[in-house]
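Predict structure. Chain length: 409.
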Amino acid sequence: MKIGRTNAAANATRVVVLSADQGFLDELNAAFAANAQMALTPVPGSLSELEAQLDLAEANVAVIDLDAAQPGEMQALERLMARVGPWPPMVVITQAFDAGVARALVQMRVADFLVKPVAPVELVRTCARVAQAPATTTATEVTEAKIYTFLPAVGGAGVTTLALQSAMLLLNSGPGGRSSTCLVDLDFQHGACADYLDLEPRLNLNEIEPRPERLDRQLMEVMLSHHPSGLAVIAAPNRPAEMRSFDPDVVTRLLDMVSTQFDYVVFDMPRTWFSWTDSVLLGSDELFIVSEMTVPGLRHAKQLVEAVRERLGDGPKPKVIVNRFEQQMFSTGLRKNDIERVLGDSFAACIPNHYAIVREAIDRGVPLEDVKPGNKITLAIKKMILPQSEAKTATEEKGAGRFKLSWAR
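Prediction complete.
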């Protein structure tokens, strides 16, 4: 009998895992046993030894644990991929990661790859995601994303939380309950999007900076992080001690790619203005400047609105979000009508202050709705991001091709 056969129930996702690491297989057995929707078939051994015997005809996902430093292992993987084709989707686990391995895996069109040590629960989530992934868009199909950009007026205004929650709302806004959505962290020095969602940041800027034109759909897929909700995240590892100004072509190429691969794209911007900032803002459909509920914060927000309008001309009109808003009775502090009077037509919304919920969500690496469904912060963002008129016409607008790429080169 060939290796890889399973007697799993018909409605379960059948996962075949090949690994020479028996301890790792034992950990996976326990993790997959706890999920009734997943059925694991462990195959002990190396791919170079068992490649010819590995039968994946009944598998929904194949997981190959190999040592990429061994040429024989990578060659065996290439032969296996050529034999089985696009199904089942292949998840590769490697001992180490470098640019050469990434390029090889991209060329083989693997569904995803992970670097050891791998938490068993992470592999379970990865298998569930790739098993349900839609068919790859053909080369002639081009989507036109709607772009939401969040720009801080002051430090610590909560831009990442608002961008993340907006992305989650957009993800679940489609007619069928799902719209492909990507959250892009453009704060390459202090970005926190990946940390807030407990994800590994995969964007390797050193890999694409020498030749930005090399960034294509396949390489971008390798550099995407995926949240269990289905949200795609592009984030680079933090470099807090480095102040780097990347070639604008690097960022422009990245923006061109994501804007054609998703229904919605959300940008989390740094406060510092870079040479590529104008390009991002000009390509946005909705531009939100995030402030805090203080007089200096509102002053900075108003100044930034005026500066953006002057720089962008007929570009998107910036709107100001006042985060962590609190209205106390008999208080002599700022009131909502004061904020509206100061900001005028640039006022977008006040987001209520419920820091305990936000802090718990950040510490757990989950969206706010996982902490408290129907919380006031999410409701306020939803009212701003997905008003009724937008919800009713989103499909028609996207179908009409309303958004046009406008990244300035």
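Summary: Residues 1-9, 134-142, 389-409 have pLDDT under 50 and may be disordered.
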